[in-house]
Amino acid sequence: MGIPLDELLQAIPLEQLLIQTVNGIVTGMILALVASGLTLIFGIMDVVNFAHGELFMLGAYVGVITLAATGNFWVALIVATLTIALLGAAIHVTTLRPLLGRDPLTTILATFGISLVLQNYALWQFGPVARKIQEPFTGHFTLFYLDYPWYRLVIALLSAAIIGALWLFLKFGTYGIWIRATTQDRVMAQAMGIPVPSVLTVVFAIGAGMAAASGVLFGPLVGVNHAMGLDWVLKAFIVVVVGGMGNLGGSIAASIFIGLLESYASLWVSPAQAVIFSFVVLILTLLFRPTGLFVPTPK
Amino acid sequence: MSARRVVVVYWTAFSVILALLIVAPLVLPEFWRRFLTEILIWGLLAMSSDILIGYAGMVSFGHSAFFGLGMYGAAAALLLVKPPDLWLAILYGLIAAAGVAAFVAYFATRLRDIYFAITTLIFSQIFYVIIFTWTEVTGGENGLTFSRPALAIPGLFSVPFTSETLHWFVLAVVTASYLALRRITQSPFGMVLQSIRENEARTRAIGYPIERYKIGAVMLSGLFAGLAGVLYAIQNRFAAPDFVFFLISGEVIIFNVIGGIGTLVGPIVGAAFFLLLREGFSRFFTEYYLIPVGLIFIAMVIFMPQGLLGFMRRWLNQ
To answer: Which of B58, B104, B118 best probes binding to A when mutated, by most A CB atoms within 10 angstroms?
Structure first.
């Protein structure tokens, strides 16, 4: 303590700051992909999906298996997304559909149960040793004398592309319009002939698929293990509260904000402690703007 | 049944169960004696969370923080003050838990329903990260170990705990807490909490300062959770960051749902049921016991939302 600010800043070279900026945006984009699935499910279905991190983790595992079988990363990405989307649909039909119309809090309990089951299933099936996903390409480019892997930039762009596709789908696709109608007024949507229960199942499946895709994309950066979902679901919850629940744009902005914040913070403290900075942001948000940082102030 | 008969039946059942629990350690083998004491401690933790879930309608995912800070508070008293003193451990544990509870209550009660659940979860993670990374003070991942204090009343007597006297001590604390919580839930304060659960807007319109009641409820709940943490620390002679991790809060909610929320006794029944299930399943599934337990939990959320106790009550009334 007691170190003047300019001395602290001098201790960190500019290029490192730049690297951390890029890193922060990359993790922010992955986080945005996880959180937008979570916020989609919450905003449309009033379901807080505790099992979202486990879907992320299982997606990464399906990616590991498919990659081992086919040797192609992109095939693995698509197979994992589709498999977990199907699993999501199955989970929705078996456990969440019976809870339709009950207190939203019961869905937290049910999805918490699902997350326990899935996490322990993964531990049982794949063991505690972390698996590795090979990056699809290993090229580097030079960023201020330092090598920076291309793959990280590709992740950020792909995440942005997937989120963009989701937005277009919600805006212009027939099913997307049904989904938005269901969000606005479930009863009226039903009366207009929209198959509300299957719309909800599709939403859950899309969210699950997005979680799985981010799991596969993120897999090469860290090991894949059964507990990796916990970290992400917590971060995604922070993002969703900071960005405003059920607000897609807010979640993306908050993801990048949190990603940048944590990567700058890890210049000074260990990554495990960098989380505390996001916690502080959360507390400040709750204090001054409880509806979310990126939402217009309610009148 | 007339109101009078209900009262008679209630106190008879209460005395019978209490008597059974007092006699139990004398007849049970060591393993089950310990097991029963543990059920009582987890039951106290679950009961404290029932104040929020069952009475105020707030699902807290942050009870592990209160429980864990109770443990670490007791650890601080037992490690820093020589010779270790039981009552000082309880006092330190309660102060630590109350401090955390005040912090969490102040921020989290600004939000409702799901938002409250998520915020309490994140707050408990804050304390987890702090305890996990502050190795010099908290022992980090390894936690702290200490010796058990003697059962003593200053100036009167001082004997080391045996597993029987530990059980009776825990039983006395849990029973006293149960009676206190039961009284509180039937007091005007408890009534206001229930009316907040039923209709927050109307309760506010009547003129109750809802925020103050909610903060009070979270702090009360946190205090009893901290007490459970102190008891657990004394029983097991260690404090570990695993107990601050939010999975513990999740288990506490499972106890509540299994046993029946809003009944105070239900959560204890739920804790007993869960721990027995875990004991039974872990013989076949080893550490993967959470797979069958999780499936049972999901089934109960869907098909038996009133829990074991509520189910039994309905079945008895038929």
So the answer is: B118
Tens place of pLDDT for every residue, chain A, 299 residues?
A: 445 556 655 566 677 778 888 888 888 888 888 888 888 888 777 788 888 889 999 999 998 888 888 888 888 889 999 999 999 999 988 888 888 777 777 888 888 889 889 988 888 888 777 777 777 776 677 766 667 777 888 888 888 898 888 888 888 888 888 888 888 888 888 888 888 888 888 888 998 999 999 888 888 877 788 778 887 888 888 888 888 766 778 888 888 888 888 888 888 777 777 788 888 888 788 777 777 777 665 54
By C-alpha distance, which of A24, A4, A35 is closest to A244?
A: A35
Chain B residues within 8 angstroms (CB to CB) of chain A: 59, 107-108, 110-111, 113-115, 117-119, 121-122, 125-126, 129-130, 132-133, 250, 253-254, 257, 287-288, 290-291, 293-295, 297-298, 301-302, 305
CB pairs under 8 A between A and B: 104
Token pair in block for residue B190: 């408890």
Q: What is the pTM of this model?
A: 0.83
CA distance A60 to chain B (A): 20
- CA distances for A249 relative to A254, A257, B17, angstroms: 9, 12, 56
Spatial contact of B219 and B109, defined as CB atoms under 8 Å apart: no
CB–CB of A142/A15 below 8 Å?
no
